[in-house]
Amino acid sequence: MELSTSQxxxxxxxxxxxxxxxxxxxxxxxxxxxxxxxxxxVVLLDVTQVDYMDSGGISxxxxxxxxxxxxxxxxxxxxxxxxxxxxxxxxxxxxxxxxVFDDDAAAEQALRETART
Amino acid sequence: xxxxxxxxxxSIVVQPDASQLREIRRFVEAVAADATLDAxxxxxxxxxxxxxxxxxxxxSGSSCSPLSVxxxxxxxxxxxxxxxxxGFRLPNTANGFQRDHRGLGLxxxxxxMDEVRITKLSGGGTKVTxxxxxxxxxxx
Lengths: 117, 140
Hints:
The complex is a heterodimer of chains A (117) and B (140). Chain A has 117 residues and is of the alpha/beta class. Chain A has 4 helices and 5 strands. Chain A has a 5-stranded mixed beta sheet, with helices on both faces. A 5-stranded antiparallel beta sheet of chain B has the order 1-2-3-5-4, covered by helices on one side. The interface between A and B is medium-sized, with 20 and 27 residues.
């Protein structure tokens, strides 16, 4: 797994490449904690290039959601059909603080709407 | 008989360490390809096997007993057995998908596989058996 960071409407986006499993999930967790520690109200993960995720990755998403719930939301951008299915199976898709976007443009629009409220 | 449809049995043995999960997934991908599973079922199998192995790793403690993953294709079924020689333990269970770090593994295995069996091995250890139906029956 490789991580890089860029910005979308002033919000950091963690772009993930490769596979997220029990062996490397802590690396992603640390990257998300860095964003949360900077007092961000939104965490965005671009998973376009994530071809595999298991409960190691799901646990990281749940931890981030726990920290964000009172103040903002967690968004993932462009999950493939398998990752999307996994998210639905574990019930993450039903969480009001969790959002799935098809692309950067959709995420950016949501960020602008959040900024207005 | 085409190679992809022949009955087969294959296994790998790895150290009980989360860093080995990647190698186990490569093994599962190769087995799934031979069993003619599509991309979706291959993903499901990789996740289920990873969950079974991660559970074994988590419970192995300081034990260095190796973890074995065996795959066999028979009739309409691809069966994968994950065996560890640590003490017997039930995979972390929860009421459905508990919103916690733990307890996701077993519900995911059950949701993704056609059959999941957990067996206490004589002499200590646990066997998790995962089965999926394969699209083309193999010739035995």
